[in-house]
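Entry for the shared binder. Reason: the reviewer on the internal report wants the predicted structure included alongside the sequence.
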Amino acid sequence: MHISLDGFVAGLKGEMDWIQVDDELFSYSGKLTEEADTALYGRVTFEMMENYWPTAADQPGASKHDLEHSRWYNAVDKIVLSGTKQKTGSKNIQVIANNLAAEINGRKQTGGKNILVFGSPTAVHSLMQENLIDEYWLFVNPILLGEGIPLFKGIREHVKLKLVTNKVFTSGVTALHYRVNTP
């Protein structure tokens, strides 16, 4: 998840024009997506993704990133956390409206690859409240927003993290990979 140095994932109106991305970052994050077979989204982010990624590779002049991520997006299962979205007819899209902990823990037990959360701050807040996040991949952008939508919100107890890896990109973005310490 992209985050500002002061802990925001978007501006007050959801703006993300401050996020720095380039080929170096796309290459790095592409390796992360290849280790996952499920993408998890909130409804708003899912609808944004569905409007772009299924056909991104078919567009004239599609970038290497568009080609790779579109292929991945179309192949993986998608979980959408939403209290308003109706179930879809697609076999690889699951809508979760209730029993979040049971549904996600059940999915984790199936023995597949990783589940990645893309954006979706409200969904992330729900996952945090249920202690369902095992690892955090934070892409810290060198900017102070001053206000916006915070990443860390509604945490009920201390969550101890262990730094697994870090990487500084040419752009100044720093990737931090933390694992949640389990007792």
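Summary line for the report: The domain at 2-151+161-180 is CATH 3.40.430.10 (Dihydrofolate Reductase, subunit A).
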